[in-house]
Write a structure and sequence with these properties.
With 146 residues, this protein is mainly alpha-helical. 55% of the residues lie in helices and 7% in strands. The protein folds into two domains: 86 residues, Glutaredoxin (3-Layer(aba) Sandwich); 36 residues. It is built from six helices and two strands; from the N terminus they run αααββααα. The chain has a two-stranded antiparallel ribbon. The model has no long low-confidence stretch (mean pLDDT 86). It is a single-pass membrane protein. GO terms for molecular function: disulfide oxidoreductase activity.
Length: 146
């Protein structure tokens, strides 16, 4: 979820009611703020918010059913998750491909942080920050080419 997302805010009350049933259903129920954990949005290929995954025994299934407390409880208690095909091992969160995607998301957040630091704290104009990143990119390209 993301705190600015209207759909996430709408789901919040139902998710909290469902979370109260976690112990009874013998499951851990959590939420992750993708604005604070951008690597996870890359690792799980989050393209829409909110996105819900069911994880069991190292297998990940994307939940796409109705979003009420009762539907969530039935999904677990009736083991409806067994009818959903797990995410392919190629696209599983622990695969090399998704680990690389996560690293790229984290890199992009670091670059954004550096850009904000240069423009807000150092006082470099936005175009100046772009020039700095262009020069760093060229320099790294030359170093890697050698």
């Amino acid at each position: 979820y993301a705190p600015w997302c209207p759909a996430c805010q709408g789901l919040q009350p139902e998710w909290e009611k469902f979370a109260e049933w976690g112990e009874d259903l013998e499951v851990n129920i959590a939420k992750v703020d993708v604005t604070k954990q951008p690597g996870l949005s890359g690792r799980f290929v989050i393209t829409a918010l909110p996105t819900i995954y069911h994880c069991k025994d190292g297998e990940f299934r994307r939940y796409q059913g109705a979003r009420t407390k009762t539907d969530f409880i039935n999904f677990i208690s009736d083991q409806e998750w067994k009818s959903i095909e797990p995410v392919s091992s190629w696209f599983g969160p622990s695969s090399f491909l998704m680990s690389s995607m996560s690293a790229l998301f984290q890199l992009s957040m670091w670059i954004r942080h550096c850009h904000n630091y240069l423009t807000e704290n150092v006082g470099i104009p936005i175009w100046g920050s772009y020039i700095v990143f262009a020069l760093v990119t060229l320099f790294l390209g030359v170093i890697l080419a050698l």
